[in-house]
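Help wanted!
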Amino acid sequence: LAKTTQPISMDSYEGQEVNITCSHNNIATNDYITWYQQFPSQGPRFIIQGYKTKVTNEVASLFIPADRKSSTLSLPRVSLSDTAVYYCLVGDNFNKFYFGSGTKLNVKP
Amino acid sequence: NAGVTQTPKFRVLKTGQSMTLLCAQDMNHEYMYWYRQDPGMGLRLIHYSVGEGTTAKGEVPDGYNVSRLKKQNFLLGLESAAPSQTSVYFCASSDRTGVEQYFGPGTRLTVT
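Answered by r_m:
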């Protein structure tokens, strides 16, 4: 399983932009980078996926440098409802996904 | 559209008892998965299925069995529950890419 390294926790305030970085030094050529969000007592929810450069959807942006050994999930103008655990996954197939412990984001008023 | 549903939501078992967790999805997805999540940890894949009648082992399959007799249902069985199986169990489904998985609400299982 492709391992990833993320900060254990992060604090932010409402209205700020939050960037969560994930390290994946051993990413393989065919691997994609996928991010999930999990609220307490709920199952994870897919946020975004990318292979290289930048991907943006209505929820977040994903920045991936040329060497692909890291990636950054960017959440614009967070609100209290964005308080959750965020997981970075690397792989080209679901049975290679490693959820890890994720990053616990705490958004304060 | 209910998405992915799980039954039951909570269960307490005694060591050695058996039980079956039911997962149902109404999105016509080919792939289905069972994960467990221990406190403060990420999810670990127990078993998965890539189609009706097929199952395969994931990262932590020991002590569990699964069946997928119908495309929309995926059952997880514990034949002889152990305290180490105390966890929250999540079912998920996806299309054949396996990337965007849709998760159920989870089943909180306690084994005493």
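OP: Thanks! One thing I noticed: The first strand of chain B starts at residue 4 and ends at 7.
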